[in-house]
Write a structure and sequence with these properties.
Order of helices and strands: EEEEHHEEEEHHHEEEEEEEHEEEHH
Shape: globular
CATH class of the largest domain: Alpha Beta
Number of helices: 8
Structural class: alpha+beta
Radius of gyration: 22 Å
Organism: Ctenopharyngodon idella
Number of strands: 18
Strand content: 25-35%
Distance between the termini: 32 Å
Keywords: Glycoprotein, Immunoglobulin domain, Membrane, Signal, Transmembrane, Transmembrane helix
Largest sheet: 8 strands, antiparallel
CATH architecture of the largest domain: 2-Layer Sandwich
Number of domains: 2
Strand order of the largest sheet: 4-3-2-1-5-6-7-8
GO biological process, one term: immune response
GO cellular component, one term: extracellular space
Family: Belongs to the MHC class I family.
CATH topology of the largest domain: Murine Class I Major Histocompatibility Complex, H2-DB, Chain A, domain 1
Helix content: 25-40%
Length: 339
């Protein structure tokens, strides 16, 4: 039996004052040890619900949603996700036909949702679909039009753009119903969603020839900036920044690496600068495998943690070949590409 590793879709950056409600659906075809369909709901990037085609039931993932909604809510979510499962099975078959594929492991994804700035009152909505990790369809709410970067998505674009009633319905959903649910969820989970936890920052290196990793973890909310300085000046050369990842306790982690020779590191002052919620943390002392104070799991597997943590928290992952693909809820989404 084949198995694949799926990486979580990129999400909107939650700036200060901005809150988001997102739903992410994934359909998978082929002989793979993975649910045929999964659905995840997130508020401010904290997962609060989950559904997959194996358990056939929408379930709570946070205590605040468990305490504030009843059985009717979960029955409605379950039925909605079951309908979406059927639609996505059709979607992935249509996409395979359009890409002239008859077999193999393929993924069809959809992300949609809304954002609300609690300081300005500004709202926004988004919906995008992807096939095999590439952009397939996207909705521009301002222009009220669908777009596709690939020829295979053009038939759907033409059909959906000609359905003005459907476009107006989607605009109404994203600007009103979605925002109402977002505010309701924020009230439900305000004790945890409004918390602020500062990051723990460490410089890690497995051996002198390895890149130096600046690892920030345990912070909340998710908005964070990691940068490097060399001799007091901003430094960008040979620097890599990795995806933001969730921890099991609801906080986040992020890493950045810099490639320098031991001699260059010794002759210059390199500092990792981490900015979070208006506070700045700096670190310039490298920890190595020889220091017992460093957790072995972090030192030995900084790269692997990118994979393992997301699997443990999200319950599924979706491969993304390019940055910028955004997330979406069953009610009001109308997720049938087959038309």
């Amino acid at each position: 039996m084949r198995s694949v590793v799926l990486l979580l879709l990129g999400a909107h950056l939650a700036y200060a004052g901005t809150h988001s409600l997102k739903y992410l659906y994934t359909a998978v075809s082929g002989d793979i040890d993975f649910p045929e369909f999964t659905a995840v709901g997130l508020v401010d990037d904290e997962q609060f619900m989950y559904f997959d085609s194996n358990i056939k039931k929408a379930v709570p993932k946070t205590e605040w949603i468990r305490q504030n909604v009843g059985a009717d809510y979960w029955d409605s979510e379950t039925q909605s996700d079951i309908v979406s499962h059927r639609a996505f099975k059709n979607n992935i078959q249509i996409a395979m036909e359009r890409f002239n594929q008859s077999k193999g492991v393929h993924t069809f994804q959809e992300m949609y949702g809304c954002e609300w700035d609690d300081q300005t009152g500004t709202t926004d909505g988004f919906r995008q679909e992807g096939y095999d990790g590439e952009d397939f369809l996207s909705l521009d709410l301002k222009e009220e039009r669908w777009f596709s970067p690939v020829q295979q998505g053009v038939p759907t674009v033409h059909k959906w753009n000609n359905d003005r009633a459907d476009l107006e319905g989607r605009k109404h959903y994203f600007s009103t119903e979605c925002i109402e649910w977002l505010k309701k969820y924020l009230e439900y989970g305000k004790s945890s969603l409004q918390k602020t936890v500062s990051p723990q920052v460490s410089l890690l290196q497995k051996d002198p020839s390895s890149p130096v990793t600046c690892h920030a973890t345990g912070f909340y909310p998710r908005g964070i900036i990691i940068s490097w300085m060399k001799n007091g000046q901003d430094h960008y050369e040979d620097v890599d920044l990795y995806e933001l990842l969730p921890n099991e306790d609801g906080t986040f982690q992020k890493t950045s690496t810099i490639r320098v020779t031991p001699d260059e590191w010794k002759k210059n002052e390199f500092i990792c600068v981490v900015e979070h919620q208006g506070k700045t943390v700096t670190e310039k002392k490298i920890r190595t495998n020889n220091e017992t104070s460093v957790p072995i799991g972090i030192i030995g597997a900084v790269a692997a943690v990118i994979l393992l943590v997301v699997i443990g928290v999200a319950g599924f992952m979706v491969y993304r070949k390019k940055k910028g693909f955004k997330p979406v809820k069953a009610s009001g989404s109308g997720s049938s590409t087959s038309s």
